[in-house]
Write a structure and sequence with these properties.
single chain, alpha/beta, Nuclear Transport Factor 2, Chain: A, 3 domains, three-stranded antiparallel sheet, binds flavin-adenine dinucleotide, binds iron/sulfur cluster
Length: about 400
């Protein structure tokens, strides 16, 4: 009987899935099993499109099509959670199972606490995540550093700290550290990300910690909820998945790798936030960078926290219509509304038409708020800071005390 807290090596019994999967194929087999047994109405996963740089979100209702989604796309910088809200009515009238990276999962939590998605209808199969590389950067990096035509690459993977490519005629790997020192490698938000093993999903699956004869052939699964335990248990009993207890040495190695990744995240935070300066200097930098904004709204469209029908940035008395670049109020509104809940998913930067480092600005502010109030977005159903302020009560307190300290953290 599988139970919450178990750590297992798991692998699929399906030879086709095993051939296409990244590790043991447990994720694809579990998704397929959930669909076959009608535990869910559909699977929302990611498949390869034109090439390895093209990660396509896809809704699957026929279990036979699931093998198309096996494998990891490290240039898949997409965020699945906002798509569940936008295109699947927040899973309110259908049950879905989906793979989730840390940021996908955090986005789902932030949307769920605002009643924009229904977590009761979602099975979240977490995948550990060391980071993703923007497709544009990946192409440039492969041409410049690997000296290979990006169009002939048939597979990419990140293993043992290296970005590895396979192409007609060979394969090559270069250390991520070296690539990142030269401005390539993972997206900057991914470098700062500290959600490497998504334990707030129902299962957390990865390759860290799979050693011995199972290395490369099994998926390390940490069981994080009863929902996850039930799915894995049923799939194991049906013979779809085979499991064995994780090797204790492997568990130790996984812990060490996670620790090292978290330290690396801290290093990048110190570096990125340090370069942004503090106080007035930071503000001036943000004003300068955002002054090239063309108000394309991609940052709002793709942010998991932004879903308002009447967005304040479209109120004429706050942001003058038709003015490009918009006045700084456009960005201030987003900072004020999002900074307490930003999950550092990088969408507002990745998709910005003017390459403005929006995620860096928002993440820098989010970490300051986290230091002040202790609220960590995306990891629980705890309400965001702004939800805790009773406006009427606050106004009376401000007027009675003459204070201008809106969040009175000093009392
Ligand atoms: P499979 O059966 O091959 O299924 C993989 C699932 O991942 C599929 O459902 C697919 O749709 C989905 N998927 C593929 N690309 C994406 C994407 N970009 N976004 C969301 N879902 C996607 N494991 C580690 O232990 N360490 C790591 O550093 C690490 N980094 C990863 C980085 C990325 C971007 C991804 C997607 C995964 C990463 N993993 C990492 C997890 C690992 O690669 C495997 O996904 C995991 O071990 C499960 O293996 P599997 O054979 O059971 O998965
Ligand atoms: Fe992975 Fe974190 Fe980057 Fe999301 S933000 S893709 S979880 S490293
Ligand atoms: Fe993601 Fe940007 Fe929204 Fe933060 S502000 S959650 S990085 S899209
Ligand atoms: Fe809502 Fe503010 Fe985002 Fe506009 S910027 S969608 S008002 S949270
Ligand atoms: Fe401005 Fe970039 Fe946002 Fe577009 S995505 S509105 S250019 S900040």
């Amino acid at each position: 009987m599988v139970k919450k807290g178990d750590m297992l090596y798991a692998w699929t019994s399906d030879a086709d899935i095993a051939a296409k999967a990244e590790c043991g194929g447990a994720v694809t087999s579990l998704l397929k099993f959930a669909l076959e047994k009608k535990m869910v109405d559909a699977v929302f996963a990611v498949k390869r499109g034109q090439d390895i740089y093209d990660a396509v979100p896809t809704l699957i209702t026929d279990p036979k099509e699931l093998d198309q989604t096996a494998g990891s796309l490290h240039c898949g910088t997409l965020l699945l959670s906002k798509l569940v809200k936008k295109y699947l009515n927040g899973a309110n009238n259908m049950k879905i199972a989906m793979p989730v990276k840390g940021c996908d999962m955090m986005g789902l939590y932030e949307l769920a606490k605002r009643q924009q998605v229904n977590l009761d209808n979602i099975i979240m199969i977490g995948v550990n995540c060391g980071g993703t590389v923007s497709p544009v950067t990946a192409r440039k990096m492969i041409a410049a550093k690997f000296e290979v035509d990006p169009d002939v690459v048939t597979k990419e993977e990140i293993d043992k700290g290296q970005f590895i490519i396979e192409y007609e005629g060979g394969h090559k790997g270069i250390s991520i550290d070296e690539l990142e020192d030269e401005g390539y490698g993972r997206r900057s938000n991914c470098r700062r990300c500290k959600l490497k093993i998504p334990r707030q999903a129902d299962l957390a699956c990865g390759n860290w910690g799979v050693i011995g004869d199972k290395a490369g052939k099994a998926t390390f699964v940490e069981v994080c909820s009863d929902k996850g335990a039930n799915l894995l248990d049923a799939a194991t009993k049906a013979g779809v998945i085979k499991t064995e207890a994780a090797n204790p040495k492997g568990i130790e190695i996984r812990k060490k790798v996670e620790g090292a990744m978290l330290k690396l995240g801290d290093k990048w935070r110190a570096r990125d936030f340090g370069e942004l300066g503090e106080g007035r200097a930071r503000l001036e930098k943000i004003v300068k960078e955002t002054s090239r904004c063309i108000k394309c709204y991609q940052c709002i469209e793709n942010c998991p926290i932004c879903y308002c029908v009447e967005c304040s940035t479209k109120k004429p008395y706050l942001v003058k219509p038709g003015e490009v670049p918009p006045n700084f109020m456009f960005h201030l509104i987003r900072f004020a509304h999002i900074a307490d809940s930003c999950i550092n998913c990088g969408q507002c930067q990745e998709l910005c038409a003017m390459d403005i480092p929006n995620a860096l600005f928002m993440h820098a502010q989010q970490t300051e708020l986290e230091k002040m109030f202790g609220h960590v977005p995306g990891v629980s159903m705890e309400l965001p800071l702004l939800a805790l302020v009773e406006e009427k009560e606050e106004r009376s307190r401000l007027s009675a005390t003459g204070s201008d300290q809106i969040f009175d953290i000093f009392k």
